[in-house]
Specification:
Number of helices of chain A: 13
CATH architecture of the largest domain in chain B: 2-Layer Sandwich
Largest sheet of chain A: 7 strands, mixed
Structural class of chain A: alpha/beta
Distance between the termini of chain A: 41 Å
Shape of chain A: globular
CATH class of the largest domain in chain A: Alpha Beta
Strand content of chain A: 15-25%
CATH topology of the largest domain in chain A: Rossmann fold
Number of helices of chain B: 12
CATH topology of the largest domain in chain B: Chloramphenicol Acetyltransferase
Helix content of chain B: 25-40%
CATH class of the largest domain in chain B: Alpha Beta
Shape of chain B: elongated
Number of strands of chain B: 19
CATH superfamily of the largest domain in chain A: Thiamin diphosphate (ThDP)-binding fold, Pyr/PP domains
Radius of gyration of chain B: 36 Å
CATH superfamily of the largest domain in chain B: Chloramphenicol acetyltransferase-like domain
Largest interface: A-B, 8 and 12 residues
Structural class of chain B: alpha+beta
Radius of gyration of chain A: 20 Å
Oligomer: heterodimer
Helix content of chain A: 25-40%
Number of strands of chain A: 14
Strand order of the largest sheet of chain A: 3-2-4-5-7-6-12
CATH architecture of the largest domain in chain A: 3-Layer(aba) Sandwich
Largest sheet of chain B: 7 strands, mixed
C-alpha cells in the first residue's frame, strides 16, 4: 500500500497494463507531447513512444471509430476523452459500434477497449464541460459503465477494464483527481465489476452513491453520527453497469430507508433506476419513500457560487437523510 | 336574488347531502365562488355562487339530507332584504312520499357557466367525475377544525414496512395514529401502538345448531369406534431435530423445492416401520394382519373437518416425492376433491400440529391402524447434554398404540428406531 492521488492511480493502472501487455495503447487529444489536459498521461509518451501513446486530431468520432477497429483486430486501445462531454460526438461509435459488434458478429468479435476521461462538476468548466453521463451510457446493453470513488478503485477497476474483453466507459470524476488514498502496490491488484461495497457501516439509513458523491456522503455520514447520532450505512456502487444492488438491498432490509445521492440531474438519472429497483425488490421493508438527492435541474453555471448551489452539497444530503428518517 | 338548490345530478338522484358550508349566512360571495360542498351517491362537488351578493340564511345544516330541488340558501343582490329561504315543499313530506319534485331543476343549476359545456357531453355527475381530481379540502383543516378521521375500513396512509409490521404484530392500523407526512403511519407508530394489545374485532357469538355433515358423522363414528373399543396407551419421546432442520435447509437450497419437517417425519416413520412390522398391523377378531406395504395416512385439517389422505408405499419414496404428494393431496383435500382411493387404506397415520405451535399432544388411532404419531412443534429448548445446559432444536412425538396389537416394549422399540432416522437424517436422504 502507498498513498496516491486518484490521478496517479489511473496513470499507474494504464502504465502497469502497458508494461504487462504490448497490445495496450492509449490515444487522445493532447495526451502525448502536452501530457494531457489533466496531466493523467504525464511521462507516458517518453516511456512508450508515439506508436503506443498517440496524439489525435480533435475528432472524437474518428478516435473511437479507429479504436473500435483496433480492438476488433486484437489490440486493447484506451481512448482518453479530454472530458467525457466530448464523447457525445462519438456516441454513434460507442453505442452503435463498440456496444454492438459482438452482438452483430454472432459472438465472433470482441471489442476490448476503454473510453475514459473526466466528467462532472466542481471545477468551473461551465455547462458544456461539467455534465455527468453515467445514466446515458448505462442505459445501453453492451458496455460496462464504471464510476470509481477512490484512488484504489480507480486503479483496480481501470485494470479490470483494460484486461477485459468488453468495451468500457470509464467515468472519472474531474473533482477527485487530486484526492489521495491508499492504493495497493501489487501489479495484479484488480477490482471486479459488479461488486458494490459497504463504504461505511450503520443501522439507521442506507445512503447509496458512487463517484464523487460517495465521498461527500461519507463526510455527511460522519457528521450526522457525531452531531445527531444518526448512523448511515454508505454503499459504493463502483460500477453502474453491471449494477450490484445486493449490499444496498441487504442494508435496506435492516435500515428500512434509503437515500440515493447523485451529482446528475434528477429526471431519468441513475438515482431513479436505483430507487425504482429498491422499491421493487424491498417494498415491504421500506418505512419511507426512497429519497433522491441530486443536482439542480439547470445547465451547470460557470460562476463558482452558482455551481456550488447547483450541485448537491453536504446540507442537501443531510436533509435527504432526515427526510427518510422523518426527522 | 338567486336561490341555491339541491341540483339533480343524474336521473337516479333523488336527494343529496350537505357536506359543509364554505360560507356563513351574511358572508359576501362572488360569482363562481364555491359556497358549499354536497355529496351524492356518486360524487362530491362544490356548488358555486351564480351571482355576486350576500349569502342568505342557511336552510340546511351540514350533514343534512335535502331532496333534489330543495332550497339550500339564497344569494341576495345589493339592496335586497334577507328573507328566510322558502322551501317549496316540506322536506319531511317529500322524503316520506318519495315523490320527485315537480319542478324540474335542470335549468337552475348553480354552477359556473364555464362548466356548462360539460352538460352537453353527458350527465353532470359524470362530467364532474371526469374532471381532474378535486382538491382535497380535508387535508389542510382551517381554523383548527378537527378533520374527521377516516372511518373504519377506509385506507389509512402507511408505509409498506408499517403495514407488514402491523400484520405481524396483529395491530389494526385503524387504531394507530400516524406521525409521518400527511398522517402516514410509519414503523415507529406501529411499534409504539402497544403491539397486539390493540383491540381486534371480536366476532359476534350466536347460538346456533350446525347440522351434522356426512363427513362430521363419519369422523365422530370412527373416532368413537376407536377410543371406545381400542385400549390406547401412549409413549412420548423428545427428538433432537437440529441436524434434521439443517439437512432440510440444505436440501431446499440445493433442490429449490419446499420441504416441511413433516415430509421428513413421514419418510422416517415409514422406514422405521420396515423394522417393526408388528406396528404396521391391524387388529381383527380372528387374527392380526401385518401389512406387506407401508401406507402412511397424513391428517389434514380442512374447513369441514379432518381427513387423512394416504401416501402409498411411503418407505419407497424420497422426501421430495413425499413432499410433492402431500402438497397435492392436501390441496385436493381442502377442495374436497379427494378420491376414495386417496384417503383409504392407510396402515399407519401421522398427525402434526407443529404448525399450530402445539408442543405435544395425543392423537386417537385411525382404525384399522394400530398406531398414530402425534408430532409437536420443532422449537429451540434448553436441554442437558453431558451435564451442561445447552439450547437445541427439539420436537416431541407421542405415539398412541392399540394395546391389543402393540405392547409397550414393542412400541418403545419402534420409537427407538424412529429416533435414529430422525436424529441422523442423512439416513433419510441417502
Amino acid at each position: 500500500m502507498s498513498e496516491k492521488s486518484y490521478r496517479d492511480a489511473i496513470r499507474e493502472a494504464m502504465m502497469e497494463e502497458m508494461d504487462r501487455d504490448q497490445n495496450v495503447l492509449i490515444m487522445g487529444e493532447d495526451i502525448g507531447v502536452y501530457e494531457g489536459t489533466f496531466r493523467i498521461t504525464a511521462g507516458m509518451l517518453k516511456k512508450y513512444g508515439p506508436r503506443r501513446v498517440i496524439d489525435t486530431p480533435i475528432a472524437e468520432a474518428g478516435m473511437v471509430g479507429t479504436a473500435v477497429g483496433m480492438a476488433m483486430l486484437g489490440l486493447r486501445p484506451i481512448v482518453e476523452m479530454m472530458t467525457v462531454n466530448f464523447a457525445i460526438v462519438a456516441a454513434d461509435q460507442i453505442l452503435n459500434h463498440a456496444a454492438k459488434v459482438r452482438y452483430f458478429s454472432g459472438g465472433q468479435v470482441d471489442v476490448p477497449m476503454v473510453i475514459r476521461g473526466p466528467q462532472g462538476a466542481g471545477v468551473q468548466l461551465s455547462a458544456q464541460h461539467s455534465q455527468s453521463f453515467e445514466s446515458f451510457y448505462a442505459h445501453f446493453p453492451g458496455i460496462h459503465v464504471v464510476t470509481p470513488a477512490t484512488p484504489a478503485d480507480a486503479k483496480g477497476l481501470l485494470k479490470t477494464a483494460i484486461r477485459g474483453k468488453d468495451p468500457v466507459v470509464f467515468l472519472e470524476s474531474a473533482a477527485l483527481y487530486g484526492m489521495k488514498g491508499e492504493v495497493p502496490d501489487d501489479p495484479d491488484f484488480t477490482v471486479p465489476f459488479g461488486q458494490s461495497r459497504v463504504a461505511r457501516e450503520g443501522n439507521d439509513v442506507t445512503i447509496i452513491s458512487f463517484s464523487r458523491m460517495l465521498q461527500l456522503s461519507l463526510i455527511v455520514a460522519d457528521k450526522l453520527s457525531k452531531e445527531e447520532g444518526i448512523e448511515c450505512e454508505v454503499i459504493d456502487l463502483r460500477t453502474l453497469r453491471p449494477l450490484d444492488l445486493e449490499p444496498a438491498c441487504a442494508s435496506v432490509a435492516r435500515t428500512h430507508r434509503a437515500v440515493v445521492v447523485q451529482e446528475q440531474w434528477k429526471p431519468f438519472g441513475a438515482g431513479a433506476e436505483i430507487a425504482a429497483s429498491i422499491t421493487e425488490r424491498m417494498f415491504d421493508e421500506l418505512d419511507a419513500p426512497v429519497i433522491r438527492v441530486t443536482g439542480e435541474d439547470v445547465p451547470m453555471p460557470y460562476a463558482r457560487n452558482l455551481e456550488l448551489l447547483a450541485t448537491p452539497h453536504e446540507a442537501h444530503i443531510a436533509a435527504g437523510v432526515k427526510r427518510a428518517m422523518y426527522r | 336574488m338567486s336561490e341555491i338548490i339541491m341540483p339533480k345530478m343524474g336521473d337516479a338522484m333523488t336527494e343529496g347531502k350537505v357536506v359543509r358550508w364554505y360560507k356563513k349566512a351574511g358572508d359576501a360571495v362572488k360569482k363562481g365562488e364555491p359556497v358549499l360542498e354536497i355529496e351524492t351517491d356518486k360524487v362530491n362537488l362544490d356548488l358555486e355562487a351564480e351571482q355576486d351578493g350576500t349569502l342568505g340564511d342557511l336552510a340546511a345544516q351540514e350533514g343534512q339530507v335535502v331532496p333534489v330541488g330543495g332550497v339550500l340558501s339564497n344569494i341576495l343582490g345589493a339592496g335586497e332584504k334577507a328573507a328566510p329561504p322558502k322551501q317549496k315543499e316540506d322536506k319531511k313530506e317529500t322524503k316520506e312520499t318519495k315523490e320527485p319534485p315537480k319542478e324540474e331543476p335542470q335549468q337552475r343549476r348553480t354552477t359556473d357557466k364555464k362548466d356548462s359545456y360539460k352538460h352537453t357531453t353527458g350527465e353532470y355527475g359524470e362530467a364532474m367525475e371526469m374532471k381532474a381530481p378535486r382538491v382535497d379540502r380535508t387535508a389542510a383543516p382551517k381554523q383548527g377544525n378537527v378533520v374527521a378521521m377516516p372511518q373504519s375500513g377506509v385506507r389509512r396512509r402507511s408505509s409498506p414496512l408499517a403495514r407488514k409490521m402491523a400484520q405481524e404484530m396483529g395491530v389494526d392500523l385503524q387504531n394507530v395514529q400516524g406521525s409521518g407526512p400527511r398522517g402516514r403511519i410509519v414503523a415507529a407508530d406501529v411499534k409504539n401502538s402497544g403491539g397486539g394489545q390493540a383491540p381486534s374485532p371480536v366476532p359476534q357469538l350466536e347460538t346456533k345448531q350446525i347440522p351434522l355433515s356426512a363427513m362430521r358423522r363419519t369422523i365422530a363414528k370412527r373416532l368413537a369406534e376407536s377410543s371406545g373399543p381400542i385400549p390406547h396407551f401412549y409413549l412420548t419421546v423428545d427428538f433432537d431435530v437440529m441436524n434434521l432442520l439443517s439437512v432440510r435447509q440444505q436440501m431446499m437450497d440445493i433442490e429449490g423445492v419446499k420441504l416441511s419437517v413433516n415430509d421428513f417425519i413421514v419418510r422416517a416413520a415409514a422406514l422405521a416401520l420396515r423394522h417393526h412390522p408388528m406396528v404396521n398391523a391391524s387388529w381383527g377378531d380372528d387374527a392380526i394382519t401385518q401389512h406387506g406395504e407401508i401406507h402412511i395416512g397424513i391428517a389434514v385439517a380442512t374447513p369441514e373437518g379432518l381427513i387423512t389422505p394416504v401416501i402409498r408405499n411411503a418407505d419407497q419414496k424420497s422426501v421430495a416425492e413425499i413432499a410433492r404428494e402431500v402438497r397435492a393431496l392436501a390441496e385436493k383435500a381442502k377442495n374436497r376433491k379427494l378420491m376414495p382411493n386417496e384417503y383409504q387404506g392407510s396402515t399407519f397415520t401421522i398427525s402434526n400440529l407443529g404448525a399450530w405451535g402445539i408442543e405435544e399432544f395425543t392423537a386417537i388411532i385411525n382404525p384399522p391402524n394400530s398406531a398414530i404419531l402425534a408430532i409437536g412443534a420443532a422449537e429451540a429448548r434448553p436441554v442437558v447434554v453431558e451435564r451442561q445446559i445447552t439450547v437445541r432444536d427439539r420436537m416431541k412425538v407421542t405415539m398412541s398404540c392399540d394395546h391389543r396389537v402393540i405392547d409397550g416394549a414393542s412400541g418403545a422399540d419402534y420409537l427407538k428406531t424412529l429416533r435414529q432416522y430422525v436424529e441422523q437424517p442423512l439416513r433419510l436422504v441417502v
